[in-house]
Amino acid sequence: MSLYDDLTLRREAARRSHDSATLDALQMILSAAKNEQITMGHVLSDEELQAVIGRQVKQLKDARNDFVAGGRNDLITKTDQEISLLEQFLPQQLSEDALTNIVSEVMGTFGETVSAKDAGQIMGKVMARVKGQADGNRVREIVNRLISK
Length: 149
Prior knowledge:
This protein is mainly α. It has seven helices and no strands. The chain is globular, with a radius of gyration of 18 Å.
């Protein structure tokens, strides 16, 4: 069964059980997927759908930071529930050690002297290698930490 079909079945189950929080999150992701499908002009593969879900999770995390700054505890709780639900459909995230090892390997290809100028290139190669298994902010933090050593 494709990821899209799984999301659709879960949406219908949430609708039947009157689980509005789950229903809202699944409606949001299926709507974003439909928009992406229209833009791309073809049915989304599971990887493409995971990329859409990843973007939605990132947007929710950014919004959560705004809610924290505004003291909106009701929206923080709702956003946390949506994030945890959607993260179930994403690939398993790499551990800190595994991600650090990948960054170190990529940095090794740049020679002995790696400077802050190389950070963008390093990040690009690392992100291509981890493909959704690590957040860009985590990668940037590790790259900056290793460059500054």
